[in-house]
Amino acid sequence: SGTDEHGLKIQQAAAAAGTSPPELCERVSGLFHQALTQAAVSFTDFTRTSEPRHQRAVRHFWGALRDGGALYKGSYEGWYCTPEECFLPESQLAERRDAQGHPCKVSLETGHQVHWTKEENYMFRLSAFRDPLQKWLRDNPHAISPDPFYQHVLRWLEEDLPDLSVSRERSRLQWGIPVPSDSTQTIYVWVDALVNYLSVVGYPETHGEWWPAAHHVVGKDILKFHAVYWPALLMAAGLAPPERIFVHSHWTVHGQKMSKSLGNVIDPFACIGRYTVDGFRYFLLRQGVPERDCDYYDEKVVKLVNSELADALGGLLNRSTALSINPSNTYPCFSESCFPKILDYRGTKAMGRASAEDYEFVASVASLPLQVASYFEGFQIYKALECIALCVRQTNSFFQRHRPWKLNRKDPAEKLWLDTIIHVTLECLRVCGTLLQPVIPHTADKLLSRLAVEPEERGLSSLTFLPRYNGKPCPFEGRQLGPDTGILFQRLEKSRQHQIETKKL
């Protein structure tokens, strides 16, 4: 992760705040670093575009563009949007009135004001890359996903693709990397920022160990920069485009776009305090659908998190490990006579104590790890969590259906079936807990520790469900359960006093 720190927007914000750009960036970069750390987001590197290693990479990349004949100097004029750091065509503008009531032009998409700008800049021959870009996308239909965004980029490439201004006059923009061999120009902030993907993997010396096996995760508002400009720039510099570009949509608040002017910008620190780290992460990943904007409001978070984490998952763990039905506090044994292996449960009369519904349920849980791994790999995390939530509901139904609390542990036959019910339930919890680790790490750790699953037994690659059903040994069978540390996930209050406070950033 990291922060993109150059550009006119930063230069102007620093001036307005009465500070210098480096001081502003130091403070804001620290806030992002703190937010990621507090949200339990790990990263191998936190890079900043103001760092010397990055500036060196940008200068080398510029040289590669220049040496390849992709740059030329020309006069450029158009409507420039400083907050978005780009020129916008007339088709993307609208007429509005500013705060003083004077007519002005604004970006249709964001509402930001634009200003007519005329400069002599370096230009990038973007128009020469229409065919190579189209071929790249035709040959790699999964390069951009989800598919609606892939189709959107293809449509862009059917339209006019003018050459791109890739520098600004140094007299206007000092906060940026100077163009090598031309101190009158500053490298365009987006060229600078995009090269960050290379500088962080050691460009220009050791990037080959990683590149192009890179997967970018980007917001839909910066899709053109990542899916048109960046691949073209890479091709011009003699490099391959990234392997995948995953695109996500935005969060709205009560159906409205988040906006500083509306005062409805959500403070992530307040959300973590209100819902816990795991609760907030779970909501965002469970409800965040990449293809479309998703809505956030307090009551929605409380309802989802209470229902799926506190009640369904936490309640199941609590009931299945209660001393009243598992007095030995162990991972009980599975009985093959109660739950015999059946190759085709659909056309066979149920044997032992298990019903046809139970066989269907067990088959469903057995397929869960591969299904979840596939959704994770395809950036469809909400679908993976949907499957896990369904599994937890099905396990609750299985437990409720067989009412283990009604069985007599003193009767040998009843004890076998009682232990099998608990064994199957704990196996389902173990699978769900393992699969939930990337999403709710603290809660998953608490759940797996209660089931006495050791850290080295929590990997996805070695995850097998109910091995005893398939005639294989189960390493957990007979193992003493871990300590009972209380409620797995505390229910969130619905009180109005706890409404999330918003703040203007």
Walk me through this protein's architecture:
The protein is an alpha/beta fold and about 500 residues long. It has 16 helices and 17 strands. The strands form six sheets. A four-stranded antiparallel beta sheet has the order 4-3-7-9, with no helix packed on it. A three-stranded parallel beta sheet has the order 8-14-13.
Instruction: Give the count of helical stretches.
Output: 16
Shape from CA axes?
Answer: elongated
Number of E-type strands: 17
- Provide the β-strand percentage band: 5-15%
Provide the structure class: alpha/beta
Q: How are the strands ordered across the major sheet?
A: 4-3-7-9
Overall average pLDDT: 91
Share of helical residues: 40-55%
Unreliable stretches (pLDDT < 50, length at least 5) are 497-505
Radius of gyration: 28 Å
Question: How far from one another are the termini?
Answer: 21 Å
The largest sheet is: 4 strands, antiparallel
